[in-house]
Here is the input.
Amino acid sequence: MKKQPLFLCILGACALLSMSGYSQKAQDSKTLEERVQQLEAQLEAMQSTMDGMAASSAAEASALDAINAYLQQQAKAAQSMASVLDEAEKLGFVPGINFPSREALLKGWRAQINVQQKGVPGKTKAKPETGDTRFRKWDK
Here is the structure.
């Protein structure tokens, strides 16, 4: 008979443990569902943030393209100006009254257009610099 109360106690303890395990699983499933909902909300917030960043990135890429196009136009204009300066010098712009001031002007313009043509983004090949062509026709 002494074994029977011990057996009943063990059986009761097992029953209590199994019921407490069941209630623990129910609580875990509630917290799991809550965690899934919380993670879904975080995912939606992150997705909207990423969408905003993608739109911002597209706008910045468009602005960068416009800047590159502008710089390319400036480099082409500088190259054109170099040809104009060379032609003006060939036609006799430098010789004459106060020709050192004209030489200084041509030198300054050439320095400016050389700088405008260096390091242009998107430029594949560097064009040769415009040299000082003073007295070109007299060197021959």
